[in-house]
Amino acid sequence: MRRAVLTAVAVALAAVAVAVVVVVRHDGDLGSVRDLERGDCVDAAPFQAGQQPALADLARADCDGPHDAEVLLLVRLDARQAAGYRPVVPDEICLDALGDEADAAVSDERLLVAGVADTREPATGDTLACFGFAADGTRLDGHVKPR
Fold this sequence. Notes:
Layout: H1 2-27, E1 41-43, H2 45-48, E2 59-61, E3 66-67, E4 69-76, H3 79-84, H4 92-98, H5 100-108, E5 111-117, E6 127-134, E7 140-141
Antiparallel strand pairs: 1-2, 1-4, 3-7, 4-6, 5-6
């Protein structure tokens, strides 16, 4: 009997530990935009207002449910891009990097594009996460385009 109780307690503790890890992984704040991959989804209130968020505003979100934005691509900044970066919407570095994909995503999905770096003044070699988000401030549901 005692062994069964100890086993049940151990299983319950393991389940709680797994649940905590899953919640932290999906809903945790990001330490860096390098923690993101293409197709990842995030929530950030500034996106809903058509504004540029900062790294601290971003929280991971489930792409299968409503979310504020999706990572369209990650850009490793060269010296010219780092010097020219301005945290404004639309982000010209992201639009240039998206190329022809930007026209389809922006017009078909009615998206705005914002680039978020770890700092307001990124350096050469830093990563810029380019997000697509609804121009009308509504939340997205599902991926913005097939991957």
